[in-house]
């Protein structure tokens, strides 16, 4: 299974340790195409502009989205890129799981929470200590569909 993980980069890297935890678990289900999103070396400047132009990043990521079977997004830290990826993935009819931590004190965008259709696009509130359980439940259900 190919998994596309979305997390904030230029939107801010405050949650990178949560991304690491999620990606570690995701790797037990398949190939994570976007492991770099969870790298503690990656700053809010994004990937090195000298090796990867914005167009390169965009086109590569859209191709990876196309290739993916499942999209998992940590959406607590607002990110334009993650919002864009989710919109594109929705149009591509991908299976999508969005993960939000209410303990952040933020309120998730209506354009994400309101997109939950109980089927292809799911939004789950979680606390960090339960994130593996939420992922287990999601991937168990994938086997049934
Ligand atoms: O350097 C990058 N590499 C990259 O893969 N992305 C993709 C993957 C992330 O899920 C998403 C983050 O978007 P943003 O940078 O707007 O927070 O965009 C985004 C950037 C920088 O915008």
Key features of this structure:
single chain, binds 5-hydroxymethyluridine-2'-deoxy-5'-monophosphate, 145 residues, 16% strand, alpha/beta, Rossmann fold, five-stranded parallel sheet
- The overall pLDDT average reads 96
Q: At CATH's second level, what is the architecture?
A: 3-Layer(aba) Sandwich
* Ions, cofactors and other bound molecules: 5-hydroxymethyluridine-2'-deoxy-5'-monophosphate
The side-by-side strand order for the widest beta sheet comes to 2-1-3-4-5
Count of DSSP strands: 5
**Number of individual domains:** 1
| Portion in strands | 15-25%
Shape: globular
| Overall radius of gyration | 14 Å
**Helix residue percentage:** 25-40%
Q: Residue ranges: pLDDT <50 for 5 or more in a row?
A: none
Order of helices and strands: EHEHEHEHEH
Number of H/I helices? 5
Summarize the main sheet: 5 strands, parallel
Distance between the termini: 14 Å
GO molecular function: 5-hydroxymethyl-dUMP N-hydrolase activity; identical protein binding
Keywords: Cytoplasm, Glycosidase, Hydrolase, Nucleotide metabolism, Nucleus, Phosphoprotein
Binding site for substrate: 4-10, 19, 85, 109-111
Subunit structure: Monomer and homodimer.
């Amino acid at each position: 299974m190919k998994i596309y993980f979305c997390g904030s980069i230029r939107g801010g890297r405050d949650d990178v340790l949560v991304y690491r935890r999620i990606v570690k678990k995701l790797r037990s289900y398949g190939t994570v195409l976007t492991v770099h999103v969870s790298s503690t070396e990656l700053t809010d400047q994004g990937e090195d502009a000298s090796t990867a132009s914005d167009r390169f990043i965009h086109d590569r990521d859209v191709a990876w989205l196309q290739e993916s079977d499942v999209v998992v997004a940590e959406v607590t830290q607002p990110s334009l890129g993650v919002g864009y990826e989710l919109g594109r993935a929705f149009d591509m009819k991908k299976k999508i799981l969005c993960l939000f931590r209410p303990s952040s004190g933020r309120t998730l965008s209506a354009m994400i929470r309101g997109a939950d259709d109980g089927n292809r696009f799911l939004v789950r509130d979680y606390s960090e200590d339960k994130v593996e359980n939420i992922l287990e439940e999601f991937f168990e259900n994938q086997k049934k569909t």
